[in-house]
Amino acid sequence: MHLVLASTSAYRRELLARLRLPFDAQRPEVDETPRPGEAPAALVARLALAKAVAVAAREPDAWVIGSDQIAELD
User: Fold this and answer.
1) So what's the pLDDT on residue 50?
2) Active-site residue, selected from the candidate residues 31, 61, 68, 74
3) N or C, which end of the chain is more exposed by having fewer CB within 10 Å?
4) Which helix (H) or strand (E) holds 47?
5) H or E segment to which residue 25 belongs
6) Is the pLDDT of residue 16 over 90?
């Protein structure tokens, strides 16, 4: 099995590279538009899962990591 990061974020690639494990990174092609009234925590959880699922559909034999982040003020 190989490891795939479902992200094109340079920051996330750098963090994962610190583990010194071989991995690939792929663009997940997920619409990141927030849903009406969606709380920030729900948004990032939904997007992280959607990204992992999108890449896992293309890489069924891989371990896939999906991730997202948001900044919230007040």
Assistant:
1) 98
2) 68
3) C
4) helix 40-58
5) strand 23-25
6) yes
3-state helix, strand, coil split of the chain in percent (to 5) is 35, 15, 50
Q: What is the pTM of this model?
A: 0.90
Please write the tens of the pLDDT for every residue from 17-37: 999 999 999 999 999 999 999
User: Is residue 42 pLDDT above 90, yes or no?
Assistant: yes
Cα 65 from Cα 53, distance rounded (Å): 9
Does 68 participate in catalysis according to the annotation? yes
Q: Which two tokens stand for residue 31?
A: 């619409």
